[in-house]
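Pipeline run #58 for the internal structure catalog. This entry was flagged by the ingest filter as a single-chain record with no existing model, so it goes straight to prediction. Upstream metadata was stripped on purpose; only the residue string is passed forward. Reviewer on rotation: M.T. Logging verbosity set to normal.
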Amino acid sequence: MASTADVNVGSFIRFNGDICQIMEWQHRTPGNLRAFYQAKMRNLRNGKLAENRFRSGETIEVLRVEVRDLQYLYRDGDNLVLMHPETFEQVFVEAALFGDAMKFMKENDTVQVGFESEVAIFARAPKTVELEVTYTEPAVKGDTANKVLKPATLETGAEVQVPIFIEAGTIIRVDTESGAYMDRVKK
């Protein structure tokens, strides 16, 4: 156990049975009241932000989390097989840790996984990925007055909304957090 003085931005703590990452950590000393720490933290299980106050000197369970960059090899049922690029050690990680970003991932992508005593507690897909459009309807000639979007199927099977000038075979950049089209990749 550690005290509030040992916590910093980026620290991982166990709060109400969940693992949380500290996003903001401020020491406050209001006029005639006791000092406290104001924390904004992200719950790693569901991704929600929460705020809480901790008394100065209060004990908090700080976790030692090791974040590793791993290469995504393939899917095996409900798990993903990831490999450490230097030691070639293979690790099984639950696909559910990646959430909706899983549908934009393809083999050989580099992902970040956080481990607490060799147990994966969170996983992050790359922020952006470049994927090929495998199918989309052809554009209607003259329909350029507004910002018109149409559905497009990507090489991973995911579907995103793209501008009408995107055709099948085009490589586009997609934000994995929101699932939104960003731009066309010129190669």
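catalog note: The mean pLDDT is 90.
catalog note: The two ends are 52 Å apart (CA to CA).
status: ready for reviewer M.T.
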